[in-house]
Specification:
Distance between the termini: 34 Å
Number of helices: 9
Strand content: 15-25%
Structural class: alpha/beta
Helix content: 25-40%
Length: 259
């Protein structure tokens, strides 16, 4: 494990293998442990795999201030890791909130992203575009209430968390959240970036993503609609032949803009 100081916040990350760098960004409620199966496969395929515990999770620092989890600071954590490794450009893969950070990185630091893969979560501009998606996002409002959300998720041996998240690795995830004190910091990602008033205004505008981009969405996803992923193509630079397609057999949606 290595550690980098990102403007006073310590971020732990692990590097495995040699070759072209690829950064794997986890979301809520996971840590870098999420990628434990993908890391050896990518390293064996000839990549240098960089797997951080993003701020608030695992062994990384957990600032108390809610605004310490704003998207721009989360993006700066990743750029700090790349600078620490003297990497100018990397492939970036993100899941859940990690996908939001990946979109932000590709928009705000375009020169640092070679190819982008966003899993489950589309571009921030399309996140709650439809009524169906707003209905599925009900929990984001619940998470705004400090103490209330934590109690709701953890009572009765985390019963509500288990029912809501349906995480396939729930016992291990819960054990890590408890051991590292990561639940409130993880919820602070929602509090910093999706406050209640954000439901009343237009989404923030970000520069178009320049990197070739793939979006992956599962047809079994109970929290996210397909359109928030396919509409993300609007925010990826490219010519008129940019495609947005759905592969029903695999439950994936993808956008592949040209360079």
């Amino acid at each position: 494990m290595s550690r980098v100081d990102a403007d006073g916040v310590g971020i732990e990350y692990e590097v495995t293998g040699d070759g072209q760098p690829v950064v794997l960004l986890h979301g809520f409620p996971d840590s870098g442990r999420l990628w434990r199966h993908q890391v050896p496969a990518l390293a064996d395929a000839g990549f240098q795999v960089i797997r951080p515990d993003l701020r608030g999770y695992g062994r990384s620092d957990k600032p108390e201030d809610i605004q310490a989890y704003s998207l721009r600071l989360l993006v700066s954590d990743v750029t700090a890791i790349l600078a620490d490794l003297q990497i100018a450009r990397a492939h970036v893969v993100g899941h859940d909130w990690g996908a939001a950070v990946a979109w932000g990185l590709a928009s705000l630091a375009p020169g640092s992203v070679d190819h982008l893969v966003a899993m489950s979560v589309g571009h921030p501009a399309t996140a709650r575009r439809t009524q169906q998606q707003r209905e599925k996002s009900w929990y984001m409002l619940l998470f705004q209430f400090p103490g209330v959300a934590e109690r709701w998720l953890t009572e009765d041996n985390w019963a509500n968390f288990r029912d809501w998240a349906r995480h396939p690795d729930a016992d291990q995830v819960i054990a890590e959240l408890e051991a590292t004190g990561s639940l409130t910091p993880g919820l602070n990602w929602y509090r910093a970036n999706i406050p209640p008033e954000s439901w009343l205004r237009s989404p923030a505008r970000l520069p178009p993503v320049q990197a070739p981009t793939m979006g992956i969405w599962s047809s079994a996803d109970g929290a996210l609609t397909e359109i928030q992923m396919t509409d993300s193509a609007e925010n990826v630079a490219g010519s008129g032949d940019t495609s947005a397609s759905t592969a029903q057999a695999t439950g994936c949606s993808s956008t592949h803009p040209p360079r």
